[in-house]
């Protein structure tokens, strides 16, 4: 249950009616550095609305003036699960014995399998998985809303977790304030104004589902219902409290008029419970009512004070200062202006982004939550969110909590722990039933209902390593806190279960005898194999963690031994491949061009700890990361921040942060995959923390990856493993002070570059501490509750220009300063420079630096040639006796040559053939790829290239250069669906830092990825017709789109410009891989190294100035597809110059090599055979069109086809496949092709003998077409096939069965033949004819074995013989039953039957005792039974006598007696 509060109309104590705060101040104040703010209302939920939350409940605030929209969620409101028919928890609906073993065997044999084939064997479609649901929207409709406002401001304070809206209209200052309070589990809002009686609105609720009722009474709006899919009950109550004015409750809404202020309170809940297997609890009504009642009884100020105090306890633990300066501009503008450079405004966005991640986790995951943060945290506005807003456990859920312990938010992990523990029960069943293993398992994704099995999407259905990965965080929590009770009671049982699964499921690799995961799949990349690197690294980690936990707790010695043995045999999953990379798979399959967003094989680097920077594996990981590139989705970039931080490369980590902020972050600072996924926010915050403090190897490493752009700053409150809190500050890019606060007494190790220089260590009382030093690591015995500070006593600074140019020298100054009381010894200074750069001199010596007397060394640095990079780093290295120091500087660089402003880079005019000439003079000629070039005569020039969805334009590799501004223009016809390329010179996944990409989105908007950003322009491009499309980019990053000369939209990239510094093909209508092809057409297209003005846009074709006229030839009749006419052809020529050209002068033609003739009227071409018409046009400027040709060929006779099937059997039936040979002839143009249709199916080109298979009658239709397009009349041949014998079904008797002779069997059979039909069916019993349906009394058969044979023959002569063998035996029960039967049939008298039953019952008594010595008694009693049978007074019927004597003698023999007559 969760709650959101809206207070209007409830009678409350006077203190609940707090005076409203002045609104005007809220509307105009300058933000602090931890406030998101905007100068207009939100119109889009995903990109603009602001999130608030308290863990269980979330809401998005839009801030509309006429209508306020508050979309809200309660985290447990989910469709699907046990309440929905067919829900199976992902477990196989029917057993698949041996299925996994089959896959393992194939992998052992073949090495790998496609995801499709594995999914076909092991996958299963989702059933009742469900989706996270919106609770709907609250709307506050404002009557007589102002048409215009001033001072509008919408904001979210991260310091207080409060959202505000303020504006002034008609002299009245209005304000709104919203917060989600974890105390009381409510969200509270207040509307107020600085003049009385100005607050009026109508409160209503909407939902995209029709499954609820809404009622209003006593100022309370009650929303109640049950989801259709699973009948989950849900309820929300909104209470409205007013000060002044009136309130009216009417139907499903509440109206407030003329109030001074109003407070609203909303609480919501469901009957979900986390208990497997039902996942249902109590009706939410009581809890929701109690929450609303309790909140409404308090004043707004009381509610806010409780909320802020609760929030501050978490948020205020960590503070980050990056030396930022927060400009007075809205946050969306701050993000658009962001470059990732040295500006303090960029630091403001980065610090805000770090804090935002912590805010979002506090808002979506609290200790009283039932569920953890999902793919969207707690926020969702639809019924079918992307990926169901579920729990993806192949990285996403784990990434949500990477920041929790690091950034001092331990309490937020509680719902994560509960959720993982709740999967153990369903996961245990999945492990046992599907994998035959102990422990528990979960795969790629799950829901709140214990979905631990599989689905069937090939690229993501299989990931049993997920359970092990989810436990990593729990063990890490223990490492951060040192809480042994938590380890024993919470973490260890879950970790042990995940480890037990792998102890049972690991597979012996026949290649080397190592234990591997099989089948294994590196998430969403490549093929299935055995022992993929990520799989092995995860299993290694869970086994190691389980073993360490058991040893710490002194538990489970047998389990410890089992794990130890498994670890000794486990393949480590860390290998260095042929090009120096860390292999993603056990076999070296990695491609240097693979830029997949998952970098799964680096798990051991992060979040694992098996790979360390500076080791061979660490260097290999760096090579892999560089090959993967800096693109990817939002969460992928966030992961790469962490990777580079772990590799101790702060600048590359910062580059990935910058890429995420520039191209994977929305205006409201939410991360976008796209679409929105919150894990990217959490991962980025974790990455920033990793840049500042690391402790994965039990050493507190401070500033391990400090980027050179962060010159000065500080952080307080970060956490390190070992229950350590860290405060630290840096100046000039070097550590200044580090304060360590251990939570436990014991040895501690601290690593930092500060240790290699001059430093001092003291405790909180100022007493000096003398730690042991080993390189850059200090160690000492720390006391819990004490604070230890390490102070740097020397500073090294590097002064260099902000920007440099290739080959242009500049001075670099390195200064050593004694910043405290002691002198800094003399030192040697050198520079580390990029490849190809030089420094003069190579080194300098500096004397000792005393306090107040710094020492400076100056170098002349000459940059090398352009390398394609926008930045270059130089590092100053200072080394003295027993100390070292360093400093760095990052310089902006021109990445490569830049074409002259205004130059035309490419000018295409597709006219004919497979090559499009570049008229710009740069030689960027394009080929038509993907199919045959065809042209559209309706194009603006009369010869636009048809883009069929297969065809596209591609040049050879070419260098566009660095373009600080540019124009892209084309005459284009847009068709098709999905993403469709226009211009492309960019590798897939690049965020806009390498080349340019302009395409059309699925909603037909134009998107530009370049200049350091990906921007979608808010205008829909016309489709299905030719348009004049121009896109300009200026030096500030402003993008402008024009359609048919009119400006349609603008967007903002960065000021980086387009970096075309890598030689690759330039394409139109396809991406670099040949995908995302455009359907439609393209005529003239140009790229100009200049941003055209709006006036120039209309004349871009003249500016290109390279176009000759274009002539179009049309035929009457139209040109056939094969080029052959079936009669005379009339050819008309028409030509046109470009719209802004000089105009057409003349058209000429030449027929079959004759003289050139001025064109005046259509050209008539007659006569069989091929003809060639050449033609050209010239404009008034003298531009002569390249000669075009038209081939005209004539043929009027259709081809002739014959069919020759193999001869048939009697009745025309074939008993096997029937080959049919088709032969076609054409005496003129030749046969273009023969096609056939079998049994009404699709027409198929004939290439070889048609083999007709399958039982039944088949019709083969056929026809041929010649190269002139003449089509033969359809012919047909009929073929009948029956290649299967009949099927015989025998009933009433089962093969191999032993029957008592007292039974009757109704023996029947049926023969079925779906082909030619059954001809005969016969049956025999023991060789004697038998009719179906015969009721056979078994006492009439001899004791022993009998054989039933049924033979069926079909009309094609196929025969089936079905044999059933059974046996007949007797027992005392059978004899007793026969006596009753014979008596009932009148074959025994009642007296005789009674005597016989008496005798046989006595035999039964002895049988029941079951002792060996009772067999003699059995024999005696059987002999008396025989005597009784032989007495004619008892048995007079010969058949009865023979039957009973036979059965009795059989039992006598069975018990060791002698048969009697």
UniProtKB/TrEMBL annotation:
One of its GO terms (molecular function) is alpha-L-fucosidase activity. GO terms for biological process: carbohydrate metabolic process; intracellular signal transduction; lipid metabolic process. InterPro entries: 6-hairpin_glycosidase_sf (IPR008928), 6hp_glycosidase-like_sf (IPR012341), AFCA-like_C (IPR049053), ConA-like_dom_sf (IPR013320), FIMAH_dom (IPR054470), GH95_cat (IPR054363), GH95_N_dom (IPR027414), Ig-like_fold (IPR013783). The keyword Signal applies. Residues 1099-1159 form the PI-PLC Y-box domain. Pfam families: FIMAH (PF22888), Glyco_hyd_65N_2 (PF14498), Glyco_hydro_95_C (PF21307), Glyco_hydro_95_cat (PF22124), Laminin_G_3 (PF13385). Keywords: Signal. It comes from the Bacteria. Residues 1-18 form the signal peptide. This is PI-PLC Y-box domain-containing protein.
């Amino acid at each position: 249950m969760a709650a959101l509060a809206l207070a209007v109309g409830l009678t409350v104590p006077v203190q609940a009616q707090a005076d409203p705060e002045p609104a005007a101040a809220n509307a105009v104040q300058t933000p602090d550095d931890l406030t998101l703010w905007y100068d207009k209302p939100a119109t889009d939920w995903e990109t603009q609305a602001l999130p608030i939350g308290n863990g269980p409940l979330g809401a998005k605030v839009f801030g509309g003036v006429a209508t306020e929209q508050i979309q809200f969620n309660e985290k447990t409101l989910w469709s699907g699960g046990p309440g929905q028919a067919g829900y199976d928890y992902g477990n196989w609906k029917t057993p698949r014995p041996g299925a996994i073993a089959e896959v393992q065997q194939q992998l052992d044999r073949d090495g790998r399998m496609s995801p499709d084939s594995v999914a076909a064997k092991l996958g299963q479609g989702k059933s009742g998985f469900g989706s996270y649901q919106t609770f709907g929207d609250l709307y506050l409709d404002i009557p007589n809303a102002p048409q215009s406002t001033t001072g509008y401001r919408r904001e979210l304070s991260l310091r207080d977790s409060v959202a505000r809206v303020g504006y002034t209209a008609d002299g009245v200052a209005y304000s709104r304030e919203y917060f989600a309070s974890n105390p009381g589990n409510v969200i509270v809002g207040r509307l107020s104004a600085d003049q009385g009686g100005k607050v009026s609105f109508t409160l209503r609720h909407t939902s995209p589902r029709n499954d609820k009722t809404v009622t209003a009474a006593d100022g309370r709006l009650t929303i109640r219902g049950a989801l259709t899919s699973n009948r989950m009950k849900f309820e929300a109550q909104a209470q409205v409290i007013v000060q002044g004015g009136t309130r009216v409750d009417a139907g499903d809404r509440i109206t407030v008029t003329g109030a001074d202020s109003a407070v609203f309170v909303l609480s919501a809940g469901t009957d979900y419970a986390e208990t497997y297997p039902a996942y249902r609890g109590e009706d939410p009504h009581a809890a929701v009512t109690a929450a609303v009642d309790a909140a409404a009884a308090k004043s707004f100020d009381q509610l806010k004070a409780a909320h802020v105090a609760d929030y501050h306890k978490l948020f205020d633990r960590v503070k980050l200062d990056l030396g930022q300066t927060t400009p007075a501009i809205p946050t969306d503008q701050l993000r658009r202006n962001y470059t990732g450079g040295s500006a303090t405004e960029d630091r403001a966005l980065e610090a805000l982004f770090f804090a935002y991640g912590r805010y979002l986790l506090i808002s979506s995951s609290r200790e009283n939550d039932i569920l953890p943060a999902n793919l969207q945290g707690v926020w969702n506005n639809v019924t079918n969110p992307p990926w169901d807003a579920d729990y993806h456990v192949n990285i996403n859920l784990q990434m949500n909590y990477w920041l929790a312990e690091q950034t001092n938010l331990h309490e937020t992990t509680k719902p994560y722990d509960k959720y993982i523990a709740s999967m153990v029960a369903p996961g245990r069943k999945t492990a046992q039933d599907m994998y035959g293993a102990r422990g528990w398992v979960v795969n790629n994704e799950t829901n709140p209902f214990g979905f631990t099995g599989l689905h069937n999407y090939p690229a993501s259905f299989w990931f049993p390593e997920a359970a092990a990965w989810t436990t990593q965080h729990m063990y890490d929590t223990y490492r951060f806190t040192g809480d042994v009770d938590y380890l024993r009671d919470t973490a260890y049982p879950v970790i042990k279960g995940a480890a037990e699964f792998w102890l049972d499921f690991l597979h012996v690799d026949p290649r080397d005898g190592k234990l591997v995961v099989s089948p294994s799949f590196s998430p969403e990349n490549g093929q299935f194999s055995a022992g993929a690197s990520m799989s092995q690294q995860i299993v290694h980690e869970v086994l190691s963690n389980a073993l360490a936990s058991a040893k710490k707790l002194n538990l489970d010695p047998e389990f410890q031994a089992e794990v130890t043995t498994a670890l000794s045999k486990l393949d480590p999953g860390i290998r260095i491949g042929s090009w120096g990379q860390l292999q993603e798979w056990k076999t070296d399959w990695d491609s240097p061009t693979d830029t997949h967003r998952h970098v799964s094989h680096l798990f051991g680097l992060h979040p694992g700890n098996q790979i360390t920077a500076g080791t061979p594996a660490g260097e290999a990981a760096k090579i892999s990361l560089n090959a993967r590139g800096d693109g990817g989705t939002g969460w992928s970039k966030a992961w790469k921040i962490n990777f580079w931080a772990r590799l101790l490369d702060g600048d590359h980590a910062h580059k990935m942060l910058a890429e995420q902020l520039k191209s994977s972050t929305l205006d409201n600072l939410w991360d976008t995959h796209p679409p929105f996924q919150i894990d990217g926010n959490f991962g980025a915050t974790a990455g920033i923390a990793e840049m500042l403090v690391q402790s994965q190897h039990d050493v507190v490493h401070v500033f391990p990856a400090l980027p050179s752009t962060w010159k000065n700053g500080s952080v307080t409150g970060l956490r390190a493993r070992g229950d350590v809190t860290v405060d630290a500050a840096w100046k000039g890019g070097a550590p200044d002070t580090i304060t360590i606060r251990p939570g436990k007494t014991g040895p501690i190790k601290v690593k930092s570059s500060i240790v290699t220089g001059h430093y001092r260590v003291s405790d909180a009382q100022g007493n000096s501490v003398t730690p042991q030093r080993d390189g850059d690591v200090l160690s000492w015995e720390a006391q819990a509750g004490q604070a230890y500070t390490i102070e740097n006593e020397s500073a090294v600074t590097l002064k260099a220009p902000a920007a440099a140019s290739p080959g242009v020298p500049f001075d670099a100054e390195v200064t050593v300063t004694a910043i405290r009381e002691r002198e800094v010894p003399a030192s040697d200074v050198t520079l580390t420079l990029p490849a190809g750069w030089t420094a003069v001199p190579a080194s300098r010596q500096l004397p000792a630096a005393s306090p107040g007397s710094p020492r400076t060394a100056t170098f002349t640095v000459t940059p090398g040639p352009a390398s394609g990079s926008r930045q270059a780093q130089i590092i100053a290295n200072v080394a003295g006796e027993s100390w070292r120091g360093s400093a760095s500087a990052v310089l902006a660089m021109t990445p490569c040559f830049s074409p002259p402003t205004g130059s035309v880079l490419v000018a295409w005019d597709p006219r004919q053939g497979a090559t499009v000439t570049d008229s710009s003079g740069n030689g960027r000629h394009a080929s038509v790829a993907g199919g045959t070039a065809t042209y559209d005569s309706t194009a603006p020039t009369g010869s636009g290239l048809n883009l069929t969805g297969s065809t596209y334009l591609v040049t050879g590799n070419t260098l566009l250069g660095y373009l600080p501004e540019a124009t892209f223009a084309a005459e284009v016809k847009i068709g098709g669906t999905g993403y469709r390329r226009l211009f492309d010179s960019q590798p897939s996944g690049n965020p806009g830092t390498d080349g340019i990409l302009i395409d059309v989105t699925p909603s037909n908007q134009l998107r530009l990825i370049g200049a350091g950003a990906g921007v979608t322009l808010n205008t829909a491009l016309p489709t299905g017709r030719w348009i004049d499309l121009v896109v300009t980019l200026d030096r500030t990053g402003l993008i402008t789109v024009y359609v048919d000369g009119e400006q349609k939209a603008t967007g903002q990239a960065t000021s980086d410009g387009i970096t075309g510094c890598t030689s690759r093909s330039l394409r139109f209508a396809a991406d670099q891989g040949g995908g995302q092809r455009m359907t439609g057409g393209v005529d003239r297209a140009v790229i100009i190294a200049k941003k055209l003005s709006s006036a120039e846009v209309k004349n871009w074709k003249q500016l290109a100035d390279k176009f000759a006229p274009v002539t179009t030839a049309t035929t009457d009749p139209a040109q056939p597809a094969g080029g052959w006419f079936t009669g005379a052809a009339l050819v008309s020529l028409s030509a046109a110059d470009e719209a802004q050209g000089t105009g057409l002068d003349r058209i000429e033609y030449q027929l079959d090599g004759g003289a050139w003739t001025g064109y005046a009227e259509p050209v008539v071409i007659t006569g069989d055979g091929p003809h060639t018409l050449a033609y050209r046009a010239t404009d008034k400027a003298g531009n002569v069109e390249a000669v075009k040709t038209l081939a005209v060929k004539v043929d009027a006779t259709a081809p002739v086809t014959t069919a020759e099937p193999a001869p048939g059997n009697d009745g025309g039936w074939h008993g096997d496949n029937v080959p049919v040979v088709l032969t076609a002839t054409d005496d003129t143009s030749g046969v273009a092709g023969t096609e056939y249709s079998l049994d009404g199916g699709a027409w198929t080109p004939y290439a070889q003998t048609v083999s007709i298979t399958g039982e039944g009658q088949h019709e083969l239709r056929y026809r041929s077409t010649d190269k002139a397009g003449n089509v033969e009349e359809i012919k047909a041949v009929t073929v009948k096939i029956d290649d299967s014998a009949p099927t015989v079904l025998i009933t009433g008797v089962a093969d191999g069965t032993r029957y008592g002779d007292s039974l009757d069997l109704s023996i029947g059979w049926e023969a079925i033949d779906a082909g030619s039909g059954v001809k005969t069916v016969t049956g025999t019993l023991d060789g004697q004819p038998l009719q179906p349906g015969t009721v056979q009394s078994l006492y009439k058969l001899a004791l022993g074995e009998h054989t039933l044979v049924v033979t069926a023959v079909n009309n094609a002569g196929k025969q089936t013989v079905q044999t059933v063998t059974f046996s007949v035996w007797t027992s005392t029960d059978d004899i007793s039953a026969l006596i009753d039967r014979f008596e009932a049939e009148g074959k025994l008298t009642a007296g005789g039957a009674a005597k016989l039953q008496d005798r046989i019952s006595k035999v039964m008594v002895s049988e029941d005792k079951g002792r060996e010595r009772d067999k003699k008694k059995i024999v005696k009693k059987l002999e008396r039974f025989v005597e009784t049978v032989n007495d004619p007074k008892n048995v007079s019927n010969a058949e009865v006598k023979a039957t009973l004597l036979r059965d009795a003698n059989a039992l006598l023999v069975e018990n060791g007696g002698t048969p009697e007559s």
